[in-house]
Specification:
Strand order of the largest sheet: 1-2
Structural class: mainly alpha
Distance between the termini: 39 Å
Number of domains: 2
CATH architecture of the largest domain: Orthogonal Bundle
Number of helices: 6
CATH superfamily of the largest domain: lambda repressor-like DNA-binding domains
Shape: rod-shaped
CATH topology of the largest domain: 434 Repressor (Amino-terminal Domain)
CATH class of the largest domain: Mainly Alpha
């Protein structure tokens, strides 16, 4: 069976165009390990809350039934597919992602804290160097600040990797 026969075309053609029957759309194309990670349980819960079958969601989103099945089974899909499904479910696209942006807020605050703390320490060391003129002490202090900032970033990165 040709690959194009696998997908069922559910999109309506734009005025003045002709949509090919049984041709995959770009949103329906297999992700082949690429695309965004999707939280399949959230997707399934939102679909069931609306009392929609997978086929009804596929029609509402303008994607194939197989695409919806793949999203719920493999939890991966293209950005375009994710946008189509999110629009059909009337939710923000990021709510369907495996790692929503809100989970990254802690990392942003952690790295931001390291950056602000390091900047303040550098300003303090440079102010001390300008007033007292001790370049050697300023260099040592800046080196220590850099080491502490580097270790802090490494710890934050490691903790985030373990949390996945």
């Amino acid at each position: 069976m040709p690959l194009a026969g696998i997908w069922r075309h559910t999109r309506r053609p734009l005025p003045g165009t002709v949509a090919p029957v049984n041709q995959p759309t770009q949103a329906d194309a297999p992700s082949a390990g690429t695309g965004r990670g999707i939280n399949a349980s959230v997707l399934r819960r939102l679909r069931v809350e609306r009392s929609w079958s997978q086929e009804e969601l596929a029609i509402a989103a303008g994607v194939s039934l197989r695409t919806v099945q793949r999203l719920e089974a493999e939890a991966r899909g293209s950005v375009r597919t994710l946008k189509c499904v999110a629009a059909a479910l009337e939710v923000d696209m990021h709510n369907l992602e495996r790692k929503p942006r809100t989970e990254l807020a802690g990392a942003r605050w952690g790295y931001g804290g390291v950056a602000v703390g390091s900047a303040c320490a550098v300003i303090a060391v440079l102010a001390e160097w300008i007033t007292n003129g001790n370049a050697a002490q300023a260099g040592i202090s800046l080196g220590i600040i850099g080491a502490i900032a580097g270790v802090s970033c490494a710890v934050i990165g490691t903790l985030l990797d373990r949390r996945e």
